[in-house]
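hey team, just a heads up i'm posting the complex here instead of the shared drive bc the drive is being weird again. everything in one block, sequence lines first with there labels, then the predicted structure for the whole assembly after. its two chains so it's a bit long, scroll down
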Amino acid sequence: MRMSSGFGRTLREAPSEAELTAHQLILRAGLARQLLAGGMALLPLGMRVFRRIEALMHAELAAIGAGEFRTPVVHAASLWQQTGRYAQYGEAMLRFENRNQQALLFAPTHEEAVAELARREVDSYRQLPSLLYQIHTKYRDELRVRGGLLRLREFTMLDAYSLDADWAGLDAVYDRVALAFETIFERCGVRFTAVEADGGEMGGREPREYMAFSSSGEDTLAVCQSCNYAANSEVAVRGQSAANDDLVPAMSEIATPACTTIAELAAFLQVSEAQTAKAVFFNSEKGLIFVVVRGDREVNEIKLRAAAGVSVLEPATLEQISAVGAVAGYASPVGLSNVTVIADHSVVGVGGLVAGANRSGYHLQNVVYGRDWQATIVADIANVEAGDACPQCGASLSLERGIEIGHIFKLGTRYTEALGATYLDPQGQAQPIVMGSYGIGLERLLQVIIEQHHDEKGIVWPACVAPFDLHLVQLGASATVSDAANQLYQQLNAAGVSVLYDDRNESAGVKFNDADLLGMPWRLTVGERGLKQQVVELRNRATGVVDTIGLDEVVTMIMMKDEG
RNA sequence: CGGGGUGUAGCGCAGUUGGUAGCGCGCGACGUUUGGGACGUUGAGGUCGUAGGUUCGAAUCCUAUCACCCCGACCA
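-- predicted structure starts here --
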């Protein structure tokens, strides 16, 4: 492609809307432009990267026998009503009507469509298993968009779906898809880890997230320093410490004026936050839930939902809190009954803690779980902190930031049962098809690649997703240089090397800086100076290493280096 | 939705006693340049987010509204 006729330009300064480095580079390099919040237009250069990522995906999925298919992006509400997700999905689903007042939605994911197709197509176990995928637009009316391509409303997902006769089949294909996904990420040059995750809306077993390490990540990962344990902090668990409640003096009340927060309390009493118990109140569909965690811990709402067996959690009102006899700011479960108390492991077996006295201005010292109070449930409901023990090996956990670039689930029969997608087994019995679902976000992946592959000058593309293999820079506009550059452009193209040809009438500095910004793996410079010796200069973007090569050996040299 | 912030030329920004808008980069033309963001001459480009209001007069003061960004609850 000739830059003189390309669409899109580079920017010296990033628009102020972009805060993340990778987002700034996307805009500065002219890969994409924002048209509205949550909606980005890919420009030709960005589209080429996108196509290369797609090509990797097609190749890896073909290698595991997946068949490409395509569903509509607009679905009938009635289909989603059958699985219950029309009601369940919430505001992230964009709903609308057509001219016939038919209730429609813009699909945020496609399990229903696949299950419906399976219902129509699959009659017999002989037709199973199947593995389908598409690379297609999704729309999620996200509460908040973020970080350029990181979190869009309209985005592209590689979504794959497996159909099996039984769980053993699903287990096998799940592993195959996981391997293919990992290969895709590796080929994109992304550093990532697979973590245990929360299934969220999807349901199903063994949800696993693929997280790219990223300082701008939205998720926190607990990663073990010594074993292979890695989990999203949403679900990460920690090892337990031994009980230590002997010889704690009897509980006693102590005046603590104006200490309604843990920080104030710890400061006033000269104790660490870990020596206090924190009361947090939630309202759920089962009523008020009184949660107790150690003062230095945060409640993890995902774990809490699971432990309490509720799906709705919202902050409780002051009226609800006082109705059970607790005093906001000085609340504790001590002496309360008729309320569901869920305690975190961190307040059990850790000796005497300072807890509220349910009396304004007073706390209780030396409060011991089991002796002084009881919870309805004791469970792991607090966030993991750096330094916590690994649940597998006991070593120390560290916390890393990550961006979710992929997610895989064993869905089972949730959707197929709801839609009646069954097959006849060898005994002639109808059985629900067992599904799995697997997704990768493409725009996000693209931005993650840039985040992990750039320097202060610009993008440094990994070779196999670079928009072009080589950036041909012509310096000066003389016929000599122009002819030589044009000829090289033809030769390289003919040899199958994709070339971005900077034939613009710009100064050398502008061209070099743009070449650095755009980040093709190789830069080939053609100028008067070299041509006098019949040479051109080949520079590696990543290493900065420069080779001077003869005009007649350019193509063979580049082919050789590209291989290596 | 809650909290914070920003809307002035394509991009980055300046513009408070209220007097009808400016700088840098970029862009067009001409000329000189061409190995790391060149130089000269000249030119184009702005309903100051939008709508009301106050005022003789509003980018500036008031009200409403919209858009966008950041932080939290959802997710690839």
